């Protein structure tokens, strides 16, 4: 009898909704929206599926309000933002959805302690993820006709606009095309930025079960799909928490492209405070001892050997970039990952490794130049995993074991991660463990395949194999034991075939296959990518980590091949200045950036010292993509 009642109650919840929301979708159908193009419906469903995969409901609750700003107020018919506030419903049970409100005040009035309150004459836009089996026939027909992308295993978004009447009855209407444009931009942006939220453990009340976050504001560029390209190619979307958060409240001014420049005849000799022995002049590339090196007195970002080089650089380049570099320097605090308690500055790599007790040990040998005489991939290997991690204590590195009791909707599926804090918690690693510095490479690859790329995620969910072309490996050739962690994160769903291609692959290893785990295998190929690609299995995704696009002439042929193949390709760079240079390279190759530059949640927490720049630099610091 108990089992029967449990089953009956479960079916009731599915059909009539549960939790704090307003119930299941109303049956509105996007095909009935005036002026909408079928391809735009496909783009909306694709964007909603991408957001669903990042699982914001894991951490977000109805009490978390976010401010939204899409473009300028003048871009909208009402001359103001249509829905400037959003909340996520379903994280603590019930219908999975998110609600967009006309104001933060409306959102607060409708948010009760356990349920959504109907407030007369308040209008909100809802996006509810419903099982296909419970959807109205019109929506099921639309899904089949347009081959719309599924969210998760069996859910699709239903979008409507609800108004609470004075009688307590809910009335629904179809969203307008303009409102759907707003939803599309928000969903694309939120997929990128919500993993960057940092938990505020000190500011949260001890008795509260609700996760508190540090004040947050981030602006990303979202590309409009081609079917609405007349509204310009890109739109800036700003998301903040709490809604009223501004750049100034984060301890810095909003970034600007240009700052007020100093008079050309006035240059300030600012000595550089660092323990590194040698730096390199950004103008003439002359090496100079740190005691003699100095930087621009306005932005503090670039290094010179003398005032002559500084004046010449100002006239040729720096005058137009100084303000941008200053804004980048002011963003340094935002890039610091503050959860770790081991030293996170490696200005002198050998001393840093010695402080951790791993200098010249295991995989850490590639983190300094002491073994630079040994070709990549050929470091002598002594023993097992303990030796690979440099003899760290048993609880300080990930063991070769699966993640237990990690199911989604009762089935095994890839584990979706939002950042280092969550990963360390799942692995029960102490925050004094430095393994994030090496794991940044495999976990960045995993993050791309499961959070940023749609097709690879779907293949893995279906238990199929994803083929990844990994361009330009160097130190990674000696870090293959760390890539075995991807197998455990797949959690029994799918396989990944990594083909590492580059000139640094040793001749005697080229053509070999390494089955580093049950679900991940690696092929090594020596050569230039554009010359070897025709002999390789066709990829689903291409990646290049810390690629330095602006400093390697050989990228030209590879980018041309990537452009012609239309395969999604993701690149990481170490600093914002490298990302700016990468954009120039992409434009020169005729490639359009479709995944905007965003901080990588799995960047290394260890700050590196650049030779000619003081800008924040982290391994795999930023991600950008093309053909996505």
From TrEMBL:
<feature type="domain" description="MYND-type">
    <location>
        <begin position="281"/>
        <end position="322"/>
    </location>
</feature>
<dbReference type="Pfam" id="PF20179">
    <property type="entry name" value="MSS51_C"/>
</dbReference>
<keyword id="KW-0479">Metal-binding</keyword>
<protein>
    <recommendedName>
        <fullName>MYND-type domain-containing protein</fullName>
    </recommendedName>
</protein>
<dbReference type="GO" id="GO:0008270">
    <property type="term" value="F:zinc ion binding"/>
</dbReference>
<keyword id="KW-0863">Zinc-finger</keyword>
<keyword id="KW-0862">Zinc</keyword>
<dbReference type="InterPro" id="IPR046824">
    <property type="entry name" value="Mss51-like_C"/>
</dbReference>
<dbReference type="InterPro" id="IPR002893">
    <property type="entry name" value="Znf_MYND"/>
</dbReference>
<dbReference type="Pfam" id="PF01753">
    <property type="entry name" value="zf-MYND"/>
</dbReference>
